Amino acid sequence: MPYGKRMRAGTNVGCCSLPNPTETVMVAGFTSLSPVSGGVLEIGPVDARNRGLYTCEASNIEGSVNHSTTLLVIGPPIIVHPPQNTTINVTQDAVFECEAEAYPVNVTYTWSKHGINVHQLSQLCHRVSVHSNGSLRLTAATPLDSGWYTCTASNGVGKSPGATAYLSVLRPAEVCQETSEALPGGGGAGTEDWLFSVGGGSVNYRVLEDRTLVLRMVSREHHGLWECIASTDVAMVTSNTLLQVTGTSPHPPTELTVSAGSFGVNVSWCPGFDGGHQQHFSVWFRQAAPQPHDWVYRKVPLGASWLWVEGLWPETCYQFSVLAQSEHGSSLFSEIVTAWTLNIPMATSPPRPPVMEGLHLLPPRSPTANWTQHGILLRWKPPLPPSLTPTTYLLESWTESGWRLMQSTIPATQEKLLLSSLVKDTLYHVRLRSRRGPWVSVPSQVVNVSTGGMVILPPRDGTRVSLDSPVSAGVIAGSCFLATAVTVNALVSCLSNRRKARRRQDPPTVQIVF
Prior knowledge:
The protein folds into five domains: 5-76, Sandwich (Immunoglobulin-like); 82-170, Immunoglobulins (Immunoglobulin-like, Sandwich), CATH 2.60.40.10; 189-198 and 206-240, no CATH class; 254-340, Immunoglobulin-like; 365-470, Sandwich (Immunoglobulin-like), CATH 2.60.40. Helices cover 7% and strands 43% of the residues. The protein is built from one helix and 38 strands.
C-alpha cells in the first residue's frame, strides 16, 4: 500500500511487502501499533473504524525505514455526536446536535418527529431549522412539541443511520380556582378526563375506569392530538399524545398565504399529514371579479410547498386554494384566500422592481432597428450572466404623456419583433425590459425609429406590434365607411336602371269604355 488508497466497506486490504524476510515490520494505524509477519497487513472485512493513517516501518540492525499511507473507507455515515434527551421549559428554544462522518463527505441530514419530516408538520414547519452540521433548532417550544425526534444522515452509500432523542417541554402548574380553605393532604378530590384538541367533527372513544383511553374502529377522524387533563381544586397537569392514522387520504394544507405581483401571485402553505404515503399538491385559482370564472389548476413540483402562479391580469381579484393528493385519494380543499394583483398604469413604465439581494435581472442587450418592406424590425440579444433568465420581455414607447407599455407578453425565446402600422415621416422612441415573475429589470438602451421616406406595406407574419393603434383604428374605420358608401351607391344605381328598363319594355295598354 505505497500510496493513498480508497476501499469499499466489507472488502480486504493488504500492504507492505518485505525486501528481506529477516526484517521486522511494524504497521501503525490510527488506533494501535501492530506487528506484521511476512511483511503483509491484512484488514478484513473493512469498515469505517479502520480508516486513518497507516505507517509501515521495516527495521534491522543496520537501521529502519518507514512509509505512511491513508486508508479511506467508502461507506455510509457514522453519527459521532448523536442527539441527547433534552428537557426545557415552555417558550424556550431546543437544540439537538447530530454530527456524522463519512466518505464521500457529502452528508445530508433529515429530522423527523414520530416518523414524519418536521418540515411537513404544520405545528413545527415555521419554527424549526436544520443547520449544515446536522443540528436541529426548535424555537418557542410548546407542550405539543414533546416527543421523539430522529436524525438521519445520508451520503448516498449504503443504509443511512439514524439517532433518536426525546424532547420534554415542561409547563408550570396552573391554579384553576382559588380557595380560602386548607385542603387535607395538600389537595382535594381530583378529576381526570381526555380531551381531543385537534381535528374536526365528532369521534367515538371510550374511557375506562382507570382512565385508559380506548379507540375502536380507528378512522381518519381520530387523527390528531389527544390530551389527558388531571386536576384538583388547586392545580392541573396535562399530558398529550399525537395519534397519526396512516393508510388514509392526505389532510388538507394549512396556513395558506399569497404574495401578489403585477402578473402573478406566489402561493405558499404548510403541508398536512400525508396519511403515511407521499403526497403531491395542486394550486386551484380563478378570477373572482368583476364576475366569477371557472376554477383552473396548476400542478406543483414534487416536494415543493409553494408555487408562483403567472399569466394573471394586473389589478384583478383572484381566489386561491390548495389540494393534496396521494395514492389513497384527495384531501379536502384548503381555505380559500383572496388576493388582488398589482397595477401597472398604461401611461407610465412598470413599477420599480423589489430588491433582489445577490441576484440581478438585466434588460435585453444591443437593441437595434432596421428597415424592411413590411415595417421596422426590432432586434435584441438576451441578457448575459449573472442576470437571471427572464420569462418575458416588455416593450415601451414614448408618448407625450410619458413612457407607455405597448407589449407585455413577448416570449423570452424571441429576439426580434416587427413594428407595423407605423405612421410615415414620424420619429419613434422605444425600449425593452426583462421580466421574471414579480421582478422587472431597468430599461434597455432607447432605440430611435424613424419612418421618414419609408413606403409602408402590410406585414405578412404575426410577429409584429402596432405603435399607433388609434391611427390604425381611424384608417380602418374610414376605409370601412368608404367601402360601405360605394356599395350602397352601386346598389341604388342598379335598382334605378332596372326600373327604367322595365318601363321601356312594357307595351302601352288602351282601355275602351262603351
